[in-house]
Amino acid sequence: MAQPTAWDHPEPLAVETAPVPEYGSGSLADLLPTLAAGMGVPGTTAAIPELTPADRACVFLIDGLGWEQLKAHPEDAPFLTSLLGSSRGGTGRPITAGYPATTAVSLASVGTGLPPGAHGLPGYTVRNPATGELMNQLRWQPYTEPGAWQPYPTVFQLAHEAGVHAAQVSSPTFENTPLTKVALSGGTFLGRLTGEDRMDLAAEQLAVGDRALVYTYYAELDGAGHRYGVDSDTWRGQLMCVDRLVQRLAEQLPPRSALYVTADHGMVDIPFDEQHRIDFDEDWELRAGVALLGGEGRARHVYALPGAENDVLTCWREVLGEQFWVASRDEAIAAGWFGPRIDDRVYARIGDVVAAARDDVLLIASQREPKESAMVANHGSMTPAEQFVPLLEVRS
Length: 396
Description:
The chain has helices at about 30-40, 65-70, 80, 85-90, 105-110, 115-120, 145-150, 155-160, 180-185, 195-205, 220-230, 235-250, 285, 310-320, 330-335, 345, 370-375, 385, and strands at about 55-60, 95, 125, 135, 165-170, 190, 210-220, 255-260, 270, 275-280, 290-295, 300-305, 325-330, 355, 360-365, 375-380, 390, 390-395. By secondary structure, it is α/β, with parallel strands linked by helices.
């Protein structure tokens, strides 16, 4: 039998072919600075050129409402569908979430107005260089001092200091979480349990000042997607609920207001079979030389044992390179995956190897991450289904 040669391995995906988010002109990190700049807040810049300033602005972030998923379900979201042409300042185009397209990263990008390489939350789980442990940045476990992990002021803080009425209207559960502190603090936090109450209160808060910046949030659509998939009856029911909530808020806007409906990421349903779900815990090749596996199934941070970095990169490219963009840390940084700059404190949080899924495939870890590995819909990578999010607009 002929011995295998290098030619037997298909060429891996080139790092530079990954569709990098529109940092600086059309990403989630650019939204609040653009709105605040329109209100004259010092230290902010209008980065999304398509948006027109408003004295009062409300951002309603719907967790998991990707652009492609919304467009695929017009009958379940008639009001949102009617607003598609208003997206991104009337261009009818989406914006991008940022990499990785996952909640903790995106919320930090929204609130700080900075890309992941600057705010320092570059993944679902990442290595803490000070301890060598994996840190879950959504649940903030193990606990790390929030101000040291993310030291920049939020846009809400800048707005409040400039005399703009700043408010967040969300579930009371989130009021004192570390993620809220580093990403969304500043101004007034108002907790309300029901979506209807949040919509009513958000409208009231817009009217409190001549200049107002209000943020509100809805999480249940994302949960339905993870548990049942983005084409399930449960997910569709949540989309119907979201549609009614947006309309409820839009109909109560006070004068001189702009409502922006956006999301932190889209989602992709992944079939439950070995072809689509590769199990790191069962694959000795992928485990070789790996000290820690971070990130999530479609956006992995891989931390190698000292001296094994190149071997791990080579192996991951050979095993996964047809389905994932696989890059070294420096290659991913140079390609702009995490934004135009990487702060020194953030550099070692990024994996020695970074793997982003292109195909409908998931790199699970059934033993280390049993709950995450059981999710139907997933997200994190740079595909349109995950990256593109709406920026729908209603003005009064």
